[in-house]
Amino acid sequence: MAETNISVDKEQFCCSVCLEVLWEPVTIPCGHSYCMECIKGYWRKCELKEEYSCPQCRRTFSPRPALSRNTMLADIVEKLRRTGLQDPGAKAADVECDVCTGKKHRAVKFCVKCQMLFCEIHLKPHNERNRSRMHPLIEVTKQPQKRICSRHNKLRDVYCRTDQQCICSSCLKDGHKGHSVVSVLEERMEKQKHLEEAWKKSKQRCKEREKELKDIVKYVKRSAQAFEEDSEKIFIRLLRCIERKHSEVKEQIRCEERTALSQTEKLLERLNQQIVEHRRGEAELEALSNTEDHIQFLQNYKTLCAPPDTGSRPSIDVHPYFPLLILRKALTELRDKVSDVCDRELTKISELVDEHDQSAENSQSCLLNTETGTDTHIPPSNPYAFTTD
C-alpha cells in the first residue's frame, strides 16, 4: 500500500520536558507522551514524596506507573525523522556526526553522557551498548554543549529562579543550595503564560492604536469638510458683498448719467434758442443788405450790427462725465487694495497652517514615543467652525 504524505507540525511530536522531538516515546495514564528518559528523570525528583505527577496536566499517580514504549508513536516519529519533516531546525543546523570516519553524515542526537554527536547509523549501536546505563539524548543544535552543565556533565533540566539560570540536578547541592528552583518545564510554562499575556496586551494595544488611527482619519476628514463648508460660506458672503457694492456703484453711475443728461438737455435747449435767434438775425441782415433805401439801411445798420449780448450764453466747457472719471479711479484703487489685502491675508493663513502642521507632527511624534497606557486626545469634531453671519 502506498504511503500517504501528511503535513504535520513539529510541536505535535515534542516532549514538554526537553522541548525536543520525542525519543523512545512513552505514554503515561493521563494520555500525555514524553521521552522515556525525560519522564524518568522528572519522576526521580518525586521519589521522596512518593507521588508522581504529569508535568503538563499535574494529574498525580500512586504508585509510580509502569512505563512502556509507545510503539505506534515511535514508528511515526521514526518515519518523520527519516523524512526530515519533524525538525526543519535540525537541517538548518547541519551538524556532522562525531563517529563517522569517511563521509560525515548529519547528526540527529547528542549524548549528554558521552558528549558526542551521533547520526542515524551510529545512534542504534550506541543505544544498544548503553541500554542499562543513563545516557540521556537531546536534539542536535549547532552548539549542544550549551545545554550541558560544564561542571557536572549533565543536562540543564532545572531552573534557578534566584540566579535566573538553567542548572543541572547536581548544581542544586553545589552553589544553589536554598535557592528557589523549579524544572525547566515549569519555568517555561510560567514564562509562556507571561509571554501570552504580553502578546495579548500588545495585540490589544495594536487594536486600540488602529481604532485611534481610524478616529484621527475620520476627524481630519470631518474637520477638513467643515472648514471647506465654512470657507465656502465666507467667500459667498464676500462675493455677495462685492456684488451688492457693484450694484450700488452701477446705480451711482446711472444716477450720474441721468444728472449729466439732464444738464445736457437744458444746455441743448438754450443752444437751440440761440441758434434760432442767430438765424433770425441772419435773415434781417440779409434783408438789410438787399434794401435799396439808403436811409433805412443806415438807420437799421447800427442796431443789427451791434455785438450780441453774451451774458446769457450758456457755457459748454464743463465736462459732464468728470464724476464718473473720479469714480473709476477710486474703483481701480479699491481693486488694487483688495488684491493686496487678499494676498497678504492668504500668506498669513498659509504660515499659520504650516505652523499648526509642524506642531501637530511634533505632538504625534511625542505620542508615538510615549509609554503605553496614555490616552490619545481626539480634538472636537469641528475646531475650525466659526460664525459667518
TrEMBL record:
Pfam families tied to this protein: TRIM_CC, zf-B_box, zf-C3HC4_4
Q: Which organism is it from?
A: Culter alburnus
The GO terms this record gives for MF are:
zinc ion binding
Residue intervals of the RING-type domain: 15-58
Identify the taxonomic lineage of the organism of origin: Eukaryota, Metazoa, Chordata, Craniata, Vertebrata
Positions of the region Disordered? 370-389
Which CDD domains does the record cross-reference, listed alphabetically?
Bbox2_TRIM16-like
Keyword tags: Coiled coil, Metal-binding, Zinc, Zinc-finger
Boundaries of each B box-type domain copy?
144-184
Coiled-coil positions: 239-288
Q: Which PROSITE patterns match?
A: ZF_BBOX (PS50119), ZF_RING_1 (PS00518), ZF_RING_2 (PS50089)
Q: What is this protein called?
A: E3 ubiquitin/ISG15 ligase TRIM25-like
From what superkingdom does this record's organism come? Eukaryota
